[in-house]
Amino acid sequence: MILAIKKGFLFLQKSNYISLSKNKNRRLLSSYFFVTISISIVLYVMGAFFILAFNAKNISNDFKEKIPVTIYLKDIAKKIEVAQLQKKINLKNYTKSIKYISKEKGAEILIEEIEENFLEFLGTNPILNSIDVFLKSEFVKSDLLNEISMEFGKINFVDEVRYDAPLVSLINENLIKIKFWVLVFASFFLIVSILIINSSIRLSIYSNRMIIKTMQLVGATRSFIRKPFINTHIYLGIISSFIAISLLSLSIYYLENNFMELNLMAEIEIIFGLFLCILLFSIIITSICTYFATQRFLRLKIEQLY
Q1: Beta strand pairing status for 68-73 and 130-135?
Q2: CB–CB of 67/141 below 8 Å?
Q3: Which residues touch 61 (CB under 8 Å, ≥6 apart)?
Q4: Which of 129, 134, 152, 298 could join 73 in a cystine, given CB atoms 3.0 to 4.6 angstroms apart?
Q5: pLDDT digits (tens, 9 = 90+) for 242-281
Q6: Measuring CA to CA, how many Å separate 177 from each of 141, 171, 184, 192?
């Protein structure tokens, strides 16, 4: 009878130990899952912001490169002189492309715009032959455009050089403001990302605070205690970065197929560079946060753990 009771008691002890062990493993897995998902979301949002910020610059550059400097040619200009002028413009380091528009083509364009044939009541075509010069984005500046206007305006068969000066000034002024706010929001996202990742890791370490203190009490060194926690969270950080990179890749693929004007894949090497930065950031930040989180619990006394 006594033997049966002892066996029953041992069975209950074993059952309770297995149950506690299972509950502990479940809590641990739940903690790691929460950390992984939290870091993944943070990295995804941060990566998406930087991709959008970079693409905003591309859109701005593309818009700049569509602003023409129009050189109007006098009727006395010979074909060979016009051809030589086009070659000269093409050799300039600021030239993106040029487009020659004859007076006949210019009249057609104007008729389409105003929806009225002005040639019928004027009798003659007042439009001049012209060359539209499109500059590289980094050269679309008011001072440089003034220099170009003065340079080509001195040519004897050039009637006039025009460009949209107010639009250029407006774009450049707004671009400075955009760069400032992008920097502010980038800093904000970076700080928030670090705080969220740090909080997630601290909660994960908190659930293991008793293990940390027990290992310390039996004589384990601080570096020995920290190492497995740092390795575990670096591993979770790497998993999180791959999840974030996968989500970003899917987002880019979707946007590229549905909004082709964004042209996100134009600078593929920069996108891969961003993915590498996300991976390195996740490794560095998880290792640093885990180090300080474990260090905090190593300094606490036993009564402060509760």
Answers
A1: antiparallel
A2: no
A3: 137
A4: 129
A5: 999 999 888 888 877 776 656 666 667 778 888 999 999 8
A6: 16, 10, 11, 23
Backbone angles phi, psi at 135, to 5 degrees: -95, 160
Among the ranges given (57-66, 111-120, 188-197), the one the predictor scored with the smallest mean pLDDT: 111-120
pLDDT digits (tens, 9 = 90+) for 167-211: 887 777 777 777 777 778 777 877 887 787 777 777 777 777 777
Cα–Cα distance, 182 to 178 (Å, whole number): 6
Residue 97, strand partner residues: 134
Task: Tell how far CA 197 is from the center of its chain.
Answer: 20
Q: Which residue is listed with tokens 């998880």?
A: 286
* Residue entry with tokens 């946007």: 255
What are the two backbone dihedrals, phi and then psi, of residue 71, each rounded to the nearest 5 degrees? -105, 110
